[in-house]
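Sync notes, pocket subgroup
Present: LS, DG
LS reminded everyone that the earlier model was apo-only. Rerun requested with NAP included. Inputs:
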Amino acid sequence: MKAVVVRSSAELAVVDAPEPVPGRGQVLVDVDAIGAGYVDVMARRGEYAYFPGVGSVPGLEVVGRVAAVGPDVPEGLVGRRVLALPAFGGYAEKVVTEADRVLTVPGSIDAVDAVAAGVNAMVAEIALHRVGATAGDRVLVRGAGGGIGVLATQIARARGAEVTAVTSAPARGARLRDLGAAHIVDRTRPATAGSDDDSAPAGETYDVVVDTVAGPDLADHLALLRPNGRYILCGGVGGAPEVASLEPLLRDFHRSPTLFAFSLNSVAPEDLALSWKRIVALLEEGRLSAVIDRRFPLTEADAALRWVESGKPFGKVVLLPR
Ligand SMILES: NC(=O)c1ccc[n+]([C@@H]2O[C@H](COP(=O)([O-])OP(=O)(O)OC[C@H]3O[C@@H](n4cnc5c(N)ncnc54)[C@H](OP(=O)(O)O)[C@@H]3O)[C@@H](O)[C@H]2O)c1
């Protein structure tokens, strides 16, 4: 079968690899669509601690059909359409993963849509669930044009919140507005600039901030929390958070701010399954749309990851094995 391995911190390569065999408690999935995200860029660069390194296959999410099961896995799973979350190995025509890392994809949802929602939707959904984002809350989404951000914007809106999306260009802002953002902050312009009628008013504060960016501006965004505000840090495309950034939390303790740090790695399989059910319901009700930036053949995974790395995609980049 075809698979894609990390050749160096700067390059991926297509190889012919033996078909994996499911072991005890595992399933083999015949892959129809693969999610490519910033986390794969970090894996390639050697910046993702869990990735085994050069020679290994990246890829943490695929949609396909269960083709075979290993010992101790019910035969009834064979043929089921699933979103599979392997611990890497996803950039391939077939992948083996633990049976408790597969989630059912109903026939009503296309494979590309399912993988475009995938992990990103679970990050966004569980993050908003953990911070208790609710009707009437003002929610700020940093990295709103990204894979997680476009889903966080929609899910926050579906929960009844008033969403402000931070993005980098008017065209991206217009698309986020279509996805339910009430206000747009253009991160490339000074905070006070912009008199468009959808710009967030200067000095606005928030009940909830969903942040996939971190980086040097983290402290400025922590300072935007309202009393009892909740800040959930889910990623770091702008650079790793620095301890000094947390100073506003201590300085403003009398306003009772809370910082959540959140990684899907720490979520139990049963909680992933509950979140995925809520996401499937939102997709089927038309309250959530998968946002697909581009599709690439699996054999062009190297170019796809460079595109992800450029920061230009709006939504999800998807690889197709055939
Ligand atoms: N918590 C978890 O379990 C989990 C799971 C998967 C991924 N992640 C992490 O979450 C982060 C986001 O992932 P993603 O797939 O959404 O990334 P992505 O698709 O690359 O999107 C990130 C977005 O952030 C904005 N951005 C980029 N550089 C920026 C900068 N320097 N300052 C401010 N904004 C910037 C860009 O949007 P605009 O140009 O529109 O502003 C970009 O589209 C990554 O760090 C990833 O590793 C976390």
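DG: The radius of gyration is 20 Å.
LS: The chain has a mean pLDDT of 95.
Action: DG to write up.
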